[in-house]
Amino acid sequence: MSVRIDFYSDILCIWGWVGYHINHKLAGRWQEGEVRWHYRHLELYGDVAARIRSQGTGDQAYFRYAERSEKFVSGFDGLDFHPDVWRKVRPGSSLLPHQVIKAVELEYGQQTANHFADRVREAFFRDGRNIGDFNVLTDLLTEYQLSSKSLLSCITNGYALGATVAEFRQAENDKVPGSPTWMLDNDRYRLFGNVEASVIIATVDTLLSKRRD
Question: Its Gene Ontology molecular function terms (predicted)?
Fold first, then answer.
């Protein structure tokens, strides 16, 4: 039997970007079918302006937020942060990218949605693209050959939005502590924040060993 990992984050969260970095250190660690990844989203940046206001007012608040994010990312080797992020590129909300990722999941399945979520996160933090803009998101869908009438319909008819809101509520009910959180083996284990890849590896290996016994 495989081990399930539910990875919770907000697509605009700098800690979620670190979580992405940690996850990529695990690529190829286990054989196909041993681990099932499910990307799940939290609503932390639903109202970006309100969150940024904690840093001050106007442009100064965004610049301060960008500076703090840059300083934070500099502590992780191999993790990029585009200089335009928050200074010039300012998504208004994470709700739309979460909704589009959910539509990909509903139309193409979990694995494809996981890969697309990674691409959306890269587009923002690494490439400096405004993933809060629907035109940017549709460009990303086209780049990955995921754009289709049925997927766009899933977005416009409210099904993807409904599923996204349900996911937010489930995370609240499950008291997911924040972004990023790894829930392993149907919530038997929870890892939160700046988790070493070695800790995730040790936990998964232990679970897999128990399944083989």
Answer: oxidoreductase activity
